[in-house]
Amino acid sequence: MDRHVHVCGNGGSAADAQHFVTELVVRLDSTSKRRPLPATALTTDTSILTAAANDLGFDHVFARQIEARAQRGDLLVLISTSGNSPNLLVAASTAAELGVKTVALLGKGGGKLKAIVDSAIIVPSDNTQRIQEVHALCLHLWCEWLEAEFPAS
User: Whose CA is closest to 100, among 80, 82, 77?
Assistant: First the structure.
């Protein structure tokens, strides 16, 4: 079974998570012939999100999905302009307990998240818009690299 990429964020970063997963599953470049990559945006299932928020608290909306879906060797990508969202902190800790590698796209110094992920890319800005723009660039560059590295389907 292929390893899986799980992606999460809040607000605009949730939209970035969904966009990134779309590029992984479908493709970035319309001429690419690479196979689809197994990826899930943890931000998209409103029934899970609202049930988890109601029953477990909003801090656990992503962690609960990681507990259900993630396996050792998977990757969790966390996207946050501040690095301080409690639900991302809990998600990263849960992933670590399960042996899931974590990488974060962050801004504003990286916040608390930078200390608990395996790898962090921190945009050196406090301007949310600039941080989001650089995050989008990073996500597209990752997709370009993946399309170059993975064989055609």
Answer: 77
Gap between the Cα atoms of 102 and 96, Å rounded? 8
Q: What is the pLDDT of residues 78-89, one digit of tens each?
A: 999 999 999 999
Q: For residue 78, what are the domain limits?
A: 5-149
Domain count along the chain:
1
In the chain, at which residue ranges do the beta strands (DSSP E only) sit?
A: 5-9, 39-41, 75-79, 101-106, 119-122
Closest by Cα among 44, 3, 48 to 20 = 44
Dist. CA 13–CA 110, nearest whole Å: 14
Segment 39-51 mean pLDDT: 98
CATH code assigned at 99: 3.40.50.10490
Centre a 10 Å sphere on the Cβ of residue 30 and count the other Cβ atoms it contains. Answer: 6
